[in-house]
Amino acid sequence: MMDERELFNEADPTFEESVRIDRALDTDDPAEQCERLYRRYIETYYLTDASVDFLTDLVARIQDSSPDSEELNHWLYGYYGSGKSHLLKVLNLLLDSEQLSGSDWMALWQRLDGKGKHDELRDAWCSLHENVLVVPLPINLLRYQGVREQRFSEIILQEVYSARGFSNRLDVAFFEEEFQQSGGLFDTQSVWGNREELLNDILLKRGVPNPEYTWNDVRRYRILSDLVLEGLTEEATGMTENLTDIQNQNIGQGLAMEAIESYRQELEEEHNRPVKIVLLIDEVTLFIGGDDQRLGELNALAESIQKVGGGNILSVVTAQSNIEDARPGLAKKQLDLGILKDRFPQQYALPSKHVGDIVQQRLLTKSPAGEQWVREEALNSSIDPQSMLTYTGEGQNTEPPLDAIDEDEFIQYYPLLPYQPALFLEILSNLRNNQADVTKSIFSGTARAIMALVAGLREEWAQKNRDKPIVSLVDFYDLVQYELEDVIPEKTSVIQAIENDSRTSDFDVDVAKVVLLLSYVPDLVPQHDPNLATAVMDDLEGSTRSNIQSRVRESLDGSLEKYVRPDTSPDGAKLRLTDQEEQQLITTAHDLEADPVWDDIIAMLDEALWDEVLAEVELPTSHEYGDEDGTESYPVGYTYTIDGQRLESRIGEDVVFDIEVVIRGLDPNNEDDRIADGIVYWFPKEEGLEDLRSQLIEWWALRKATQATNPPESLVRDLEDAAGRVVNKLVTTLEGDHSR
Q1: Taking 90 as the threshold, does the pLDDT of residue 10 lie above it?
Q2: Are residues 211 and 268 in the same domain?
Q3: What's the rounded Cα separation, in Å, for the pair 340 and 306?
Q4: Pseudo-torsion of CA 397, 400, 406, 412, nearest 10°?
Q5: Do residues 497 and 377 share a domain?
Q6: Which domain covers residue 73, as residue numbers?
Q7: CA 605/CA 700 separation, integer angstroms
Q8: Whole-number mean pLDDT of the chain?
Q9: Looking at the 3D structure of the chain, how many domains does it have?
Q10: What pTM was computed for the model?
Q11: Dihedral sign of CA atoms 10, 16, 21, 23 in order
Q12: Are 400 and 527 within one domain?
């Protein structure tokens, strides 16, 4: 195994686990702040085909947007961890004309596009800033989640007033704006100019002992602003009632857009050049959640941008899905979602390949010696990645694909497999979507981004004691184990039970882990044995997939039998983990299987299934009887005995001919071979008889174990399936020899 420091181009890459568009850096020097931002976000961003297409389109629309344009709102979506927030942060830095005015544009672009692959985009970006003053307004909606209910309009107003230098508390901002204006009935400007001196006098008069506060304190603390603003209003106007008129404004999308347009016009007058404002709103679908009112507000905001902005105001919002899939819980609001789609005609995806490209460039780029080692050593191992480390699916796929491995991509992604970043994201995304409230899921907003996951996997890989180790799905489970325990504790507890079971092995635990993870991507990776084998393989010099596949089947049929069961639900995964109640019932059933009571089995068969069996077996229900003068049809009835035990089930009522049928051979302990006249003997076929007995015992044991309980729906389905197998097998087996 090659040392990590020699294999990779960068031995210890650094990155942020989660980028926030509004995150500032800890420095008061504007030039140093700017340089740190460029170094942290521009230099570390990798331009992919998807991000270049998005930036190219957006730059063109900002420069060429017309007053009647309907393409002012843009929807950027992708998995959590796909780089949406990082791209939005880069966009914020690239669009900020004022900040760029003191920078060397070409040098900055070189930091983003070091290989010079995107000169056309660079030229369009430069042209934009030569012709237009662009002002981005970044808004991270996650800041406002869970604090209190806030509307889009209120949040936007806070950001606009803050950008204009006012307080980000609207009650204070409205006051500041009013008192700085000139030409009113009252001389508010002089009061405003003396506010720092006046505010402590006001507080002292209102009973605050020894006040030593500043205006920033008033902005921050409501208890101070309530007293000071009222006092300043009284100082300027001689009354306090005017404060209510100043603060009580009709906050809505109209007021928000008017504030943005007013700000834009101020900047246009100040700089004497065209100004475009671009709202950059991060994590809009998480903010909306299941709130249909917020969905309506987003519609209204997008409409206002089209009506008020005159083509000079645009928006970019990020989401974790396209609009059609924005929130399954809002299915009843299809009309609103349809309108939203019209309001955001431009939708841009950051697909799994985009994520894989970033991961590969940032964390997996090889040194020249490392690339040579992978090509000459790893690719010539006993395990051929192209034939033994691929999955077989049922139609859906990722990019790079699950069912094929390109040699060059293998070299680029090693020790991961090329499809793994996309597969990991699919699993995490589906885990999140399965939660009752996706906005609170551990995999939304605060979970590790895919970059952090891959960095962790790379670190774990370096510690493996293998000849030529690779990252497996088991490694991924181990890395996110604590997050999984928080999100799906009932399922991870099954894994823990398997680990604590003295009868299971480490391999059994690995199989159970991949069964659990693959249950969230059944349409991508069905849980059949070859795929489970692929998922646990972690060494290019280890056992072949066929050998691992045999071990997987032994594990599922053996130690894991009570923990992992076939999922008989009509859709979803093929296998599922059982819960504790199921495990107890299955254990009871297994104990019964070990010591079957055939009299009880036959009695239960008579009670529950024999009528179904007879319905499938074609026995005559009438018999023609008579002499040369004529015949007549008479009803025939049957009585049944199985291995000496008379059954209550019978066919026919008011019968004339009552035929006794004796079935022998189901009970292996029955040695009675006597033959009597007038009786129909039915002997099951020897071929398949042992399978029939096994299926009878399995069905009986499970039914007996669950009879006194209200079993889980999963076990009810298992029991129905077992009963169906018994009926089918009995019908097939009883079509053997019979004699009279």
Answers
A1: no
A2: no
A3: 13
A4: -150
A5: yes
A6: 29-146+255-349
A7: 8
A8: 86
A9: 4
A10: 0.68
A11: negative
A12: yes
